[in-house]
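Step 1: inspect the first sequence and its tokens.
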Amino acid sequence: MMKRWSIKLKLTCLYGGFMILLIVAALAILFSLSTQEVLSSVQSDLKEQVQGSVEELEEEDGKLEVDSDFYTMENGVYLSVYSVDGDFLYGRIPAGFGGQPDFEHDILRTVREGQETFYVFDMEQRIQGYGSVYIRGITSVTRAENSFTVTLRFALILLPGLAVVMILLSYFFVRRALLPVRRITDTVKEIREEEDLSRRVDLPDGKDEIYHLADTFDQLLAELQEAFARERQFTSDVSHELRTPAAVILLQSEELLADPSLSEEQKEQLEAIRRKARDMSSMISQLLLLSRADQGRQALQKELLDISELTQMTAEEQQLLAQERHISIETDIEPGIVMEADESFFIRLLVNLISNSISYGREGGTTKVSLRREGKMAVLAVADNGQGIEEKDLPRIWDRFYRADASRSDAGHSGLGLSIVKWIALEHGGEVAVESEKGKGSVFTCRFPL
């Protein structure tokens, strides 16, 4: 399931999981501190405060003097000084502690006053020049327990809340960090959809890995653009160079065939040469067309046309070709459909689709040409009940020189016809699609905006 998650979601979950583990560990440590351990810490602080307060007592002119630090309450410990007779001399007593237990040297006692419990620790100390006194330390056990409980509750509320805030912040920062990746992805999609290799990611200057990736990707695109440009130029140049030799071969073949002194065998050989020269000349013309289209130099001359009449006329002309394979062409054309189109190229689209249907149709079968209006679209369909196309071949039939049926390679099919059909459809603002099932036939559909 995680394979379907985005990288930012995975990183956020990883960081969030780490934060949750830290919080669980912190809460576990807090809960592992039992009340007894907390009280032991309170007792230790009480004894240290009482023992350390001795330094703040001194005799001066026969009187006991107390330093001001004696009154400073640390860790919740109240300090007071008593005479050996139990008279209060100096110090502070916590509110709620009204009793006056007897003094017991160096013994920690627990005293309960109403709803509150206190620790009391007494220490007898002799002050040089003055005599003996009792130093008493008092701290509230109840307040220490309540403070620990409040700390636990605060941790239970604060730490999960902190985890949520940190997870949201991590998602925000991860999302910002991956914005360049999103930009790279969008650029790739645009290049694929628009078939425009001149597009670049073009991220601003940066030093991290993502910016380095984007710069490398831009360099790759530049190299690909240059390579495709060289290929198109090569195709165009070769096509131009081959047109004249092909035309000469075709013309010489036709002139030789007109010679009555040739034997039947010689005529058959010349006819084969003429047929191949004609196929080669046709393929060169198609290559030139596609080369100009790739370079954006093949302009269409659009005008308002009655494509219903044009489709009916083209279907009737193709009937002569269909008769050679005993295929009948049926038409179902809605009259009066008008759209802006280039007449010669629209006819070429029709011829390519119908001739392709005849060539790959079943001998003695049927090719059906239909044209109808669907809302603001004109839908052209050419269907046959021929051999069909395997599913694995369907995505590739629009590729140049691709033939799903290799046995047709010598039947005058260059593999460029459907590539030209797709280009013509796109140039008219339309789209082309195919549905086919092996052994049952194919349906080629073009949709054009009206």
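Step 2: inspect the second sequence and its tokens, then contrast the two.
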Amino acid sequence: MTPAQAAKSRTTAAVSGLVTAALALAVVAATFTFQQVYSDYFTCTEDALTQSSREDCKDLLPPELRPLLQDRSSSAAGLSLR
């Protein structure tokens, strides 16, 4: 392998690492932002004592997100420990 090829390999690896790191930071930032924006919903569902009160928390979400988060919580509620 020539020095030019080795330098090109290192450059390619460095750029790939930077792109991967940027994507990871974007995912973390998006998740953090989502949790901050909808913290009222998450607090409401955690503090709910009954299933009906948990379902009332859906009013804190925009209509577009309701099916996504309700499916997740209802499938988790259906699990039971044996």
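Step 3: confirm your contrast with the notes below.
The radius of gyration is 22 Å. Residues 75-82 have pLDDT under 50 and may be disordered.
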